[in-house]
Amino acid sequence: KLHKTSKRSNKPFVIVNGALLEPEKYELELFGAENSDGTITYGAFEKAQEGILLIDEISEIPFETQAKILRVIIDQKFKRINGVSEIKVNLRIISSSSKNIRDEIKKGNFREDLYHRLNVVAVNIPSLSERNADIPHLIDYFSKKIAEANKSSIVRIDSNNEQLYSYSWPGNVRELRNLVERISILSLTGSTSNINKIISDSLSQDQNNSIQLTNESTSIPLKKAREIFEKNYLISQLKKNNGNISKTADFIGMERSALHRKLKILGIKGMN
């Protein structure tokens, strides 16, 4: 956290998603640049001046760039790419990650000093499978938002469907949103005569994989069991989508670049 701002109203709120950027674009996105034609590309730190900068999926930001973020937090100033003058900043930083940052530190993927600087007030959000009571509210919210975006009628989904609660939701809230959106899109073509069947078709294969894993993995540590499940699950989804990374990422509720990294970590090869 940097210096506190005196007022919250009319202050900028800037979001940077660490999972969406290409490796060579992180610093440009964060710090901006002074271009050869004399123009300036403003980065997130400048855009959030006197306001709030949310760095989503901060664990995906390259190790070298993490050091520069740490330096901004400490010095409260930075230089744009190709810049000479230092830019002073006064803002608040919120960061989030779907990964366990302590595990990432042990793996050498995340700077411990940056973690301690950011971890002033920690908020841990349980996975969707640990807060099933939120499912009806989320379905209602997403149904309304998607209908509003598509300028269509709201599709009524039976939130009492047992599969919604027995499913493990490895893609968490994004996966649930994708399911609601899939149902909404099919409704536009008149294909939702049996919404529960769509839910069943979407979730049953993944649930079967989960049951198979449970039967085979009762004697191994949780971390290993999770890794086995993720690997089997992703291989299954890739096969269903003929190895198409983009379609698989959309279906499971994960960003394409994040899926690429996950496949690399799990040693899943041979998929395009």
Question: Could you explain the architecture of this structure?
Answer:
The chain has 272 residues and is mostly helical. It has 12 helices and 7 strands. The longest helix has 22 residues, at 195-216. It starts with 12 loop residues before the first strand and ends in a 6-residue tail after the last helix. Mean pLDDT is 83; it is low at 3-8 and 210-217.
Produce the secondary structure layout:
Layout (H helix, E strand, L loop, with lengths): L12 E5 L8 H6 L1 E2 L5 E2 L2 H4 L4 E5 L6 H13 L1 E3 L6 E3 L3 E4 L5 H6 L5 H7 L16 H16 L12 H4 L5 H17 L6 H22 L5 H19 L4 H8 L3 H11 L6
Parallel strand pairs: 1-4, 4-7
Antiparallel strand pairs: 2-3, 5-6
Helix pairs in contact: 6-8, 9-10, 10-11
Provide keyphrases for this structure:
two-stranded antiparallel sheet; mainly alpha; single chain
Shape: globular
Please report which band the strand proportion falls in: under 5%, 5-15%, 15-25%, 25-35%, 35-45% or over 45%: 5-15%
Largest β sheet strand count, sense and barrel closure: 3 strands, parallel
Q: What Rg do the Cα atoms give?
A: 21 Å
